[in-house]
Design a protein that fits this description.
1% of the residues lie in helices and 53% in strands. The relative contact order is 0.12.
Length: 603
């Protein structure tokens, strides 16, 4: 059988996505004060949407003391060391670390001693620098002091002063005294956070104004400092939720939802753990207003399998941005969603032709060729098996591999009816071919096909179309003397426009020597103008199998009709005409099909 021209086409199927949802099964790594840590109770709150039950976590305070050496450890190298200068009006100044006295020792002292001629009047400045990032916090100053001496004048005082990165300063705390304070005394006060809104280097200063009342080298006033802490308290919470998940096929996306509310304004951040790279990946942040419910999401589409552990867990984290405002997180619902697709095998029989009868001469070989494309996901290891119909009307048995077996055998070395494509990923394709010898009895019909299967159990096997094989004592062998007809430029509203080769007897069909007697059939496609997207019915074209006479011609159809009957070796001439009705101007093209079959059989 020979077709003058033919179409091969495929229909594209849209991707099919499945989704499964999973409850959180484990709540871990809680930073904050949880209303309960019993997992069963947490699950009962978080695994039902809209029930009004919430699992609550209060933020935990995080206290930072930015001063190094705040316990007067005696470091001598800045920036850890306390550095002192003094303004001496009169008297003798002494300062430094006191290794034998403190709360506990060591401490830092300023000592003003009178001279024989003058009472003491000295101001001491002891500084230490530190860095702060300027973020909001609750600030507390705590410090210990002790006053020693035997002569106290007017104006004695201790000041704690802060110098900001822009050079401005503020007095944080002051103690005035007129007598000794022999017992170590602690002062703790709240500091206005507005003093620390700049990022940069700050300086805290211990300033002592010491005045003795009497002259004489035994008269003095001494101030001692210890445990100077500038504490920055912020609030944050963090909680992690795990879910144990499973799926089949190719993972497309992971989505995780946390439905929550907050008692105060706060920024909440959600992230998901990348098990492949051992790090957290940020998902979404929400600036939450008080007592408003929000849904915060993680959606991962890039390498989603990286976010599932080897034991099938997904982990997400919800935390607040550190600030000076504390809040209570109320989680109402946590849900994990997996989006995945299950692959399928798209198959096609290339040869033999599945649309017609294939005439194969007895004991001659022919190709069985089939293609498979992996769609909608990965398909694993894909194998193809060449089949014929031994026990039914459809291919059901692998083609024999023993030389000479009937009605077919694989004529290859080594011979195998099963061949492999190896691993096929999504949208990869593979062609498998077999050389088959037709050894069956003549004048018998058989069905040939290929079935493809995957080592993934959830992927269904799929069979190609089936081709009909007729084992013949002779071949279907013919040729055409032309490959196209160009009618040229024609006027509308004309009929019987002849093909240019009619008068030259150019359109010949030749039945070749050794061929069986053949019947020939003809059909055509409607003509198409791609410029105007219009069609001209193929019935406007006519043909003749006898004479170059339009009046005795027949209309071409979209279905096969008989052209010649029982033709043996020789040449057979055909003729063609076309009618042009009133239509849009342009180029119109079509395809004509000429089919040769064993005489007495149908297309």
């Amino acid at each position: 059988m020979f077709l003058f021209c033919f179409f091969i086409f495929q229909i594209s199927l849209a991707q099919t996505i499945s989704v499964s949802s999973f409850n959180q099964t484990q709540t871990v790594n809680i930073t904050g004060i949880a209303s309960t840590i019993d997992q069963a109770t947490i699950n009962s709150y978080l695994n039902v949407n809209g029930d009004g039950l919430t699992w609550n976590v209060d933020e935990a305070p995080i206290t930072l003391a930015p001063l190094r050496n705040s316990t007067m450890g005696g470091d001598t190298t800045p920036p850890d060391a306390w550095v002192t200068s003094a303004t001496v009006t009169q008297g003798t100044a002494a300062y430094g670390y006191n290794t034998t006295g403190g709360n506990p020792a060591p401490s830092y002292f300023h000592k003003a001693t009178s001279t024989a001629a003058k009472a003491a009047s000295i101001v001491f400045y002891t500084n230490q620098s530190f860095y702060y990032d300027g973020s909001p916090s609750v600030v507390t100053l705590s410090w210990d002091y002790q006053i020693l001496g035997n002569s106290f004048g007017t104006g004695n005082r201790l000041d704690i002063i802060i110098y900001r990165p822009d050079g401005t300063s503020s007095i944080l705390d002051t103690v005035a005294f007129s007598a000794a304070v022999p017992t170590w005394t602690r002062r703790t006060i709240n500091i206005n956070p507005a003093n620390f809104t700049l990022a940069g280097t700050y300086v805290i200063q211990l300033k002592s104004t010491l005045v003795a009342a009497a002259k004489g080298t035994t008269n003095y006033v001494q101030a001692q400092y210890d445990n100077v802490f500038l504490n920055f308290t912020k609030y944050q919470l963090s909680v992690e939720h795990n879910a144990t998940v499973s799926y089949i096929g190719t993972l497309r996306n992971i989505s995780v939802l946390i439905n929550f509310t907050s008692t105060n304004s706060k920024t909440f951040n959600m992230s998901i753990y990348d098990f492949a790279n051992s790090n957290w990946i940020a998902c979404q942040n929400i600036s939450a207003s008080p007592n408003v419910y929000y849904g915060i999401w993680c959606n991962t589409t890039s390498n989603p399998s990286n976010f599932i552990s080897s034991d099938g867990k997904i982990r997400v984290r919800l935390n607040t941005t550190i600030s000076n405002v504390s809040t209570t997180l109320k989680e109402e619902y946590v849900q994990f969603y997996l989006f995945y697709s299950v692959g399928y095998l798209e198959v096609k029989l290339i040869t033999p032709d599945a649309t017609t009868i294939n005439y194969i001469i007895q004991n001659q070989t022919f190709w069985v060729n089939a293609s498979v494309t992996c769609r909608n996901g990965d398909c694993g290891i894909v194998n193809g098996t060449a089949l014929y119909n031994l026990t039914s009307s459809y291919p059901d048995t692998p083609i024999n591999t023993t030389y000479g077996d009937k009605p077919f055998f694989i004529n290859e070395t080594p011979a195998s009816s099963i061949k492999t494509c190896g691993v096929l990923l999504e949208n990869q394709n593979c062609n498998l071919s077999w050389i088959v010898n037709a050894t069956g009895n003549t004048s018998t019909y058989w069905k040939i096909g290929v079935v493809f299967n995957s080592n993934f159990s959830y992927i269904n096997r799929n069979s190609t179309e089936n081709a009909t094989i007729y084992i013949s004592s002779c071949s279907v062998d013919f040729s055409l003397s032309w490959s196209s007809i160009d009618f040229g430029i024609l006027n509308p509203s004309t009929k019987g426009n002849p093909a240019p080769g009619n008068s030259k007897l150019q359109y010949n069909i030749t039945v070749n020597p050794g061929s069986c007697n053949l019947d020939f059939y003809i059909k055509g496609d409607d003509l198409y103008n791609s410029q105007t997207n219009t069609y001209l019915k193929i019935s406007n074209m006519t043909f003749s199998n006898t004479t170059n006479s339009y009046s005795s011609s027949y209309r071409l159809l979209n279905t096969y009709q008989l052209l010649f009957f029982n033709k043996g070796f020789g040449n057979y001439t055909t003729y063609y005409w076309i009618d042009i009705p009133p239509i849009y101007a342009g180029t119109y093209t079509s395809k004509i099909y000429i089919l040769g079959v064993l005489s007495g059989t149908s297309p």
